[in-house]
Amino acid sequence: EGFVYSGGKFTAINFPKSNGTQAIGINDAGDVVGAYLDSASVQHAFVKKGAKYTSIDVTGDTTPYAWDINNSGQILMFALDSSGDYQSFVYNGKTFKKIADPNAATTGTIARTLNNKGDVAGAYFNSAGDEIGFLYHGGKYYNVIDPKASTQTKPDGVNDTLEMVGRYANSSGAEVGFKATTK
Known about the structure:
The protein is mainly β. It is 0% helix and 57% strand. It has no helices and 17 strands. The strands form five sheets. Strands 3-4-5-6 form a four-stranded antiparallel sheet, with no helix packed on it. A hairpin with a 4-residue loop joins strand 9 and strand 10.
């Protein structure tokens, strides 16, 4: 069961007739996105605006997640294609814009965060299977690699001034948080 915490109280988020709901992202209007299992335990993504829940699926892909939503209602999603690779999208309620870092060699691109200007951050997998962070800004992809990272950098949040937070794996394999700026 998912929830929203506001004003000192918890409000349950349960997609109707579902076998479980994950609330993952929220915008300033209180719109919530996430994933749920239907009565057959098949996963779908969703958006909840006010009291209305809407299911979201990506044609040809499985296991979709709606991971983030910005204030203009753009929804950041990822799913698995028929090969088991990650596919990421920005969904505007009608169309899916693919987010695919051209440096991804294996397993695809996992977009994790979306700001109010439409910039996207996440990670892709290189040929060694390492997760390399990226920022999609102004129609271009930029690598985001913490200099202390040994095998992975994962941006998990980006704000409207392009400050990012996330985590990287150090030489002993422990995850360490970071905050990065583009300046």
